[in-house]
Every structure is written in C-alpha cells, then in structure tokens.
User: What shape does this take?
Amino acid sequence: MNTIFSIKEVTNKIEHFCTYQKRCHEEVVQKLRALKMDPEEIDRIMVHLIPDNFLNEERFTCSFGRGKHRKKHWGKIRIANELKSKRITQTLITIVLKEIYPDEYDATFNALAERHWESIRKEIR
Assistant: This one.
C-alpha cells in the first residue's frame, strides 16, 4: 500500500531529516524522490529548506570532510571522490581539503603507516 503525504507532512519529515544530521542537496532530493514527490514539489520543498538554513551545502561539506578524515582516517582523494559522488561543487571540495591541515594529515598518515607496518612484521615472524 502506497502512502501519499501532503507537502506539509513531507516538509516536516525533511526538516527533521536535515536537523538530525547535516545533509547535502543530493541526499535530500533522493529522499524526496523515495517519498514519491514530483519534481515541482521537490523544488518547492528545497526552496523552503535553504533560506531556513535546514540545508547548507558548505556546512555539510566541511563537516563531512573533517569527520571522515578525523574519525575514519580518509585521505583527501577519497574525501574528494565521495563529495563528487554527492554532486558537491569543486569550489566547496577545495575549501574542505584546505581545512585539513598538513600536520594533521601527516600525523594520520604516519599512524596508519605504523599500524600497517606492525601488522606486516607480525606476519613475517
């Protein structure tokens, strides 16, 4: 059974979706398509979300990049590729990559390399 939601109900759902976690435009559009919204309704909801600051592509990009680097130890190439897959502009990708400081990047690399080296040494023994 398909449930049909009103624009107001979907808008409330999407506001909660965006409040729970920072989202990019592409994620919100996919969610709206999954809710069977037509393109005109999607545009109306998106126009509501942006000025009310539920949706901010720059805020999402910076949070995504910092989080993936610090918590999952992703490198700049992986972060850039993931952001491209989410249709983030190259300008915003460049901004987030500049926020990853060389010292922090090097420290992450060295820690991962050390951990990998130790696992190789254990295999050799």
In short: Helices lie at 7-20, 25-34, 39-49, 57-72, 76-85, 90-98, 102-124.
